[in-house]
Design goal:
Blueprint lengths: L11 H9 L3 H4 L12 H13 L3 E4 L5 E4 L13 E7 L2 E6 L20 E9 L13 E5 L2 E2 L3 E3 L4 E5 L10 E4 L7 E2 L3 E4 L8 E5 L7 E6 L7 E5 L22 H10 L2
Parallel strand pairs: 5-9, 8-15
Antiparallel strand pairs: 1-2, 3-4, 5-6, 6-7, 9-13, 10-11, 10-14, 12-13, 14-15
């Protein structure tokens, strides 16, 4: 702080004024203050506002970033089986429902109360994300907003493919043994309504006798869907190879006939 000097002959008022005053050496050069404020209090308020609005940076796993400032809202949206709830000040709780199990526990049986797993179907123009882009129809199915996904269906569970979205009009979803739709699979499969209208769906009850590979496809247009794997007891189109990749034939048709005759 700058020195203050008064004479012994100065009045008390002069003494008070001298020692209460501020100079450039006390507060710096006011001309160098980078603020539009006209008073010290206003300048401090402006600084506080700037600090409080500096916010924080939100970054995802792809390193994409977004600056969150004071006054902005960070909206966390849940999904199927996942909820996001603000339970107290500065507290966000992410919860996973009992129908989703991590790691080795797998998927819960979904029909304990006659319920089903609902999958929303829409129809879009195919992109390179679709395994059959360039083959068959130029349109493809999206399942829960994922284009042409591979599906994993579990025996004992029921899956309902909701086709109420208007984009499904003229694109009924059914199941087949192969992607080219040579043979339809219909066991445990039911349909309701007209695709593209409210309440329309195709439903499949998966069992241990369901083929371990199925294809969900449009019954009218080609290659709109993809493969659905089933961990069942029924295998089809299976071949065996040895450790070198050479095909193994366990028995020829002639051997099988001869064996049947020998065994009576």
């Amino acid at each position: 702080m700058a020195a203050r000097n008064v004479a012994t002959t100065d009045t008390l008022d002069t003494f008070r004024t001298t020692f209460n005053s501020l100079s450039g050496t006390d507060i710096g050069d006011p001309a160098g203050l980078t603020t539009t404020a006209q008073t010290v209090v206003a300048a401090i308020n402006e600084i506080n506002t700037t600090v409080s609005s500096s916010g924080f940076t939100l970054r995802d796993e792809t390193s994409s970033t977004q600056l969150i400032n004071s006054g902005n809202t960070l909206n966390v949206v849940g999904s199927s089986g996942i909820s996001a709830l603000v339970t107290a000040t500065d507290t966000l709780t992410i919860s996973i429902s009992g129908s989703i199990y991590p790691d080795h526990l797998g998927v819960r049986h979904n029909t304990t109360s006659g319920t089903h797993t609902n999958l929303t179907v829409t129809v879009v123009s195919k992109t390179s994300a679709h395994i059959y882009q360039g083959t068959g129809s130029s349109n493809g199915y999206k399942i829960d907003d994922v284009e042409g996904p591979f599906l994993e269906l579990k025996p004992g569970n029921t899956y309902r493919f909701d086709q109420s979205d208007s984009s499904n009009s003229g694109h009924p979803l059914l199941f087949y043994y192969d992607p080219a739709k040579t043979t339809q699979f219909s066991t445990g499969v039911t349909t309701n309504g007209t695709p593209g209208s409210a309440g329309a769906y195709t439903q499949i009850v998966v069992a241990d006798t369901t083929p371990h590979i199925l294809y969900y496809q449009c019954s009218v247009h080609g290659y709109m869907g993809n493969r659905a794997g089933v961990n069942s007891q029924v295998l089809q189109g299976v071949s065996f190879v040895d450790t070198t990749g050479t095909a193994i034939s366990f028995a020829t048709n002639a051997f099988a006939i001869a064996q049947a005759v020998a065994l009576g």
